[in-house]
UniProtKB/TrEMBL annotation:
Keywords: Transferase. Residues 1-82 form the GST N-terminal domain. Transmembrane segments: none annotated. GO terms for molecular function: transferase activity. It comes from the Bacteria. Residues 87-214 form the GST C-terminal domain. This is Glutathione S-transferase. It comes from Bradyrhizobium centrolobii.
Length: 214
């Protein structure tokens, strides 16, 4: 498999899932501004015309896009890892959390706040409207170790998104103690700790490249 990713982006969730599954993959870094695959200088848009990570090419050559779909594919591809669920209501709950994280948190809250070109008024509106999503999540996580009854790809996605609070000062994680405890606990999980450490180093290298090119 080939995973196209950018450091500390939402694609890190798939890296976590693959590590948790003990799966082999080629990790191909994409430069966000130029959409260039750093390994060979190729145009990433030839693989995914939208130019967004994660993008996964399966062993059969099928190209998959969209984070939630890729995470479910990895969970189904490696059922022995336990990061997915069986059929029925448990699978529906997994879908529910992947959708919530992707729409309410990832795109609805963090992307606008992280957007350097977004007006401050727009960011203030997003925070006023959408911080209640973190209130809901904090209440749900009270007394829970994971989103489901075990670690799943939904947790991999949630930790990846909550990790962005390091770059969003208006979202102070201490305001949500259950979410903060969840995040700090899961950051110690080997697959997550490894992914964050590796991608943080790649992120620093990416920032150095941008500074040198400026």
């Amino acid at each position: 498999m080939d995973l196209y990713f950018s450091p500390l982006a939402c694609s890190m969730a798939t890296r976590v899932a693959l590590y948790e599954a003990g799966a082999e993959a080629n990790y191909l870094e994409v430069d966000p501004p130029t959409k260039t695959v750093l390994k060979d200088g190729s145009d990433f848009r030839a693989v995914n015309p939208i130019g967004l990570v994660p993008t996964l090419r399966t062993d059969e050559g099928v190209v998959l896009t969209e984070n939630a779909a890729i995470l479910q594919y990895v969970a189904d591809r490696f059922p022995q890892s336990g990061i997915g669920t069986g059929p029925g209501i448990d699978r529906t709950r997994l879908h529910q959390w992947l959708c919530f994280i992707g729409t309410e948190l990832h795109k609805g809250l963090f992307v606008p706040v992280l957007d350097r070109k977004a007006p401050q008024e727009a960011k203030a509106y997003v925070l006023e409207k959408n911080l209640s999503r973190l209130d809901y999540l904090d209440n749900y996580l009270k007394g829970r170790e994971f989103l489901l009854d075990h670690f799943s790809v939904a947790d991999a996605y949630l930790v990846t998104v909550i990790n962005w609070t390091m770059a969003t000062p208006p979202i102070e994680l201490a305001k949500w103690p259950n979410l903060k405890a969840y995040y700090e606990r899961l950051r110690q999980q080997p697959s997550i700790a490894k992914a964050i450490a590796e991608e943080f180093e790649l992120y620093k290298a990416e920032q150095a490249r941008r500074k040198a090119a400026a």
